[in-house]
């Protein structure tokens, strides 16, 4: 049954994406930029509906009161699954990404990204090119937007040892805005690089913002400590709330380590 539900969900998910991009394209490009973002947010909500109705996976968000009001800031979520890339959009005002420039070249999809003033970067670029990216990011921040940056850079299995990149410390220093850490474990239900989808319920936990002004090294150490402590706690809660969920090796090993430490 899980396999059949997974096949059905994946099929409907991509059909929904293609259909909405085609049908809503005229409205998207005619609307003002920020209003057009509502189309992407509606698509995200429809994906949540499909995940709940077809697979049986639901979620809740805790800590939205920690999101700063009336200022630009950096969202720093854990990254385990494709779910992370769109899951929080309906609760965000006007987010943007720094993303690899090749995505901007994809027909239609790249036009959507350009409309929302995403900031492309050549990963091999140095010097002036990277300075230009930072200036673009600063301009978007001054407009009150929110930068989404994954501190570990790429998707990591639930429970895996952390591999935080120094880039977020540089952004924290240069942009001078609060960083809002977010922990979650959607990768237990939507595993990376797999078509299988598991039913259950998970939480997204928005942690208190880290104010600007710390030295980059101290900030990164603090961010890792805060996020990993909260992530471990949430991993235990998620496993206990979903006793029939098959856990990947990384999550099972981490849970065993945490139990041994608590004994």
Describe this structure in words.
The chain has 263 residues and is an alpha/beta fold. The chain has one domain (59-262): Glycerol-3-phosphate (1)-acyltransferase (3-Layer(aba) Sandwich), CATH 3.40.1130. The protein contains 8 helices and 7 strands. Helix 6 (167-175) crosses helix 7 (216-241). It is globular, with a radius of gyration of 19 Å. It starts with a helix and ends with a helix.
Q: Short description, anyone?
A:
InterPro entries: Plipid/glycerol_acylTrfase (IPR002123). By secondary structure, the chain is an alpha/beta fold. It is built from 8 helices and 7 strands; from the N terminus they run H-H-E-E-H-E-H-E-H-E-H-E-E-H-H.
How are the SSEs placed, and which strands pair?
Elements: H1 2-30, H2 33-55, E1 57-62, E2 73-77, H3 83-86, E3 95-100, H4 109-115, E4 119-121, H5 128-142, E5 146-148, H6 167-175, E6 179-184, E7 200-206, H7 216-241, H8 249-262
Parallel strand pairs: 1-7, 2-5, 2-6, 3-4, 3-5
Antiparallel strand pairs: 6-7
Helix pairs in contact: 1-2, 6-7
Transmembrane segments: 12-31
Protein name: Lysophospholipid acyltransferase family protein
Domain Phospholipid/glycerol acyltransferase: 73-187
């Amino acid at each position: 049954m899980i396999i059949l539900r997974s096949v059905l969900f994946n099929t409907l998910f991509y059909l929904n994406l293609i259909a909405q991009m085609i049908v809503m394209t005229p409205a998207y490009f005619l609307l003002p930029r920020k209003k057009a973002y509502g189309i992407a947010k509606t698509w995200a909500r429809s994906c949540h509906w499909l995940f709940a109705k077809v697979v049986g996976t639901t979620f809740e968000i805790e800590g939205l009161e920690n999101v700063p009001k009336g200022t630009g800031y950096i969202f720093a979520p854990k990254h385990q699954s494709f779910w992370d890339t769109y899951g929080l959009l309906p609760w965000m005002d006007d987010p943007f990404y720094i993303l690899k420039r090749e995505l901007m070249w994809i027909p239609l999809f790249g036009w959507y990204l350009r409309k929302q003033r995403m900031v492309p970067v050549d990963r091999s670029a140095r010097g002036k090119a990277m300075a230009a990216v930072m200036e673009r990011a600063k301009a978007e921040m001054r407009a009150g937007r929110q930068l989404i940056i994954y501190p570990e850079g790429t998707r990591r299995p639930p429970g895996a040892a952390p591999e935080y990149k120094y880039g977020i410390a540089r952004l924290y220093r240069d942009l001078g805005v609060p960083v809002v850490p977010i922990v979650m474990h959607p990768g237990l239900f939507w595993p990376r690089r797999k078509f299988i989808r598991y039913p259950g319920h998970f939480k997204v936990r928005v942690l208190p913002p880290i104010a600007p002004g710390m030295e980059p090294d101290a900030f990164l150490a603090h961010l890792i400590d805060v996020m990993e402590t909260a992530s471990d706690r949430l991993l235990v809660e998620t496993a206990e709330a979903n006793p029939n969920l098959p856990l990947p090796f990384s999550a099972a090993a981490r849970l065993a380590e945490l139990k041994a430490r608590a004994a």
